[in-house]
Specification:
Layout (H helix, E strand, L loop, with lengths): L3 E12 L5 E9 L2 E7 L1 H4 L3 E8 L7 H8 L8 E8 L10 E2 L9 E7 L4 E3 L1 H5 L37 E3 L3 E13 L4 E5 L9 E6 L8
Length: 214
Amino acid sequence: MKGLIGKKVGMTQLIADNGVVTPVTLIEAGPCFVTQVRTPEKDSYSAVQLGFEEVHPARLTNGQKGHLKRNGMNLPPLKYLKEFRTETPDVKEGDKVTVDVFAVGEAVDIMGVSKGKGFQGGIKRHHFNRQDKTHGASDRTRAPGASSANTTPGRLRKGKRMPGHMGQDRVTSVNIKIAYVDVERNLLGVAGSVPGGSGTVVVIKPSVKAKGAK
């Protein structure tokens, strides 16, 4: 089974022997623990649930603690749990999964939550153009302008692009190439950017479109 939960550390760069500089994002990936293995016979589908980041037991509910202690697993208190669908689980409950499941050159998909930008206008949120500063409209250059017609349809259509909350959305970066693996420090370096700010939780999975990896 390939998959990890991690935290974005930040960005740096790798310099090859020939002088080529590659921007990379460092991720503290794992170690993760197998907290549950779901089977078609019992759960109607096949998946592996991983847990990440040890926390003080007081930060978990009794139900969460009981889930980690079931079947005699005696796992540490883990803050984040995530399921990974897999047809052939090759792990068992209580196992530890580290960054050595991935290798340099592999392509992965990384899911995270984008940075929140708060309430933004149409120009920043949807890349609208400014209006002209003519005929006394010097203070309306960043306004969105007309949003609908009066008679037909007489209302705003669903999905109309308007000012509003921007960011804080789940985003998946696909076909990202692994450029660096450090098993001792649980670090994974991927070429390019990853959704979210430093310290945010990300999920790493094998790429579903690995053939066209960048």
